[in-house]
């Protein structure tokens, strides 16, 4: 059976770490497995969680039948004391309600955006100490077992509702390569549910305030204008995006970081 595995890690695109991780994964996987790498900024568990949800919860017709998502963004902030032998956050195994399997380091908001879509969640028997490069040295073997249908590595079943934090509301969830700001405002959010195409809103991110037009797509506004509109992420309850036609919304707001608060006010 052919598998697609999405790898989400906080390594820079083209970084040597990616080359080593992919080599280690391919050593543990059948030759029919396909890997795709997605990078996030160092220690950015919000973007990790946002991407993990988008790739694992996408509609059935856009998702291969055999899909596994692996994510390792590990700030190692579960314990702020000095680390012994490079010990880090533990590795979790999840099965989502749509059947997608997820292997993820238990850090920050990495699972927050799929929290209510988890069918089962398990701790694992896998080393969390002894290497500063666990994605290369320890984790590929676990993913290889999942692909082969061997779940002997699972340990204790966990409750996702009490274990995983809720996703942060009204912040930047992800910024794409075009500078489009994907927010964690959903279409159902009471703060924006009354907005209609053509309305004008004032948006504040950090010390930057800009005016944008509520739109339905990228071509409903003039070149150079800012828009606030439902985006391409979030499945049935879309996340809203801030984008600039022909430019970079992130640049307009001084290139803010993921997790920055967003304040919206209708004019």
Question: Care to give the gist of this entry?
Answer:
The protein has 267 residues and is an alpha/beta fold.
Helices and strands in order:
Layout: E1 4-9, H1 16-28, E2 34-39, H2 45-56, E3 67-72, E4 91-96, E5 101-105, E6 118-124, H3 134-137, H4 139-147, E7 154-158, H5 160-163, E8 172-175, E9 181-186, E10 200-205, E11 208-214, E12 226-230, E13 239-244, H6 249-252, E14 262-266
Parallel strand pairs: 1-2, 1-3, 3-5, 11-12
Antiparallel strand pairs: 4-5, 4-6, 6-7, 8-9, 9-13, 10-11, 10-14, 12-13
Helix pairs in contact: 1-4
The number of domains is 2
Order of helices and strands: EHEHEEEEHHEHEEEEEEHE
- Low-confidence stretches at least 5 residues in length (pLDDT < 50)? 78-88
Mean pLDDT: 91
Instruction: Report the strand count.
Output: 14
Describe the model.
With 267 residues, the protein is an alpha/beta fold. It has 2 domains: 4-163, S-adenosyl-l-methionine hydroxide adenosyltransferase, N-terminal (Rossmann fold, 3-Layer(aba) Sandwich), CATH 3.40.50.10790; 172-266, Bacterial fluorinating enzyme like (Elongation Factor Tu (Ef-tu), domain 3). It has 6 helices and 14 strands. The chain has helices at 16-28, 45-56, 134-137, 139-147, 160-163, 249-252; strands at residues 4-9, 34-39, 67-72, 91-96, 101-105, 118-124, 154-158, 172-175, 181-186, 200-205, 208-214, 226-230, 239-244, 262-266. The chain has a 7-stranded mixed sheet with strand order 2-1-3-5-4-6-7, with helices on both faces. Strands 8-9-13-12-11-10-14 form a 7-stranded mixed sheet. Helix 1 packs across helix 4. The relative contact order is 0.14.
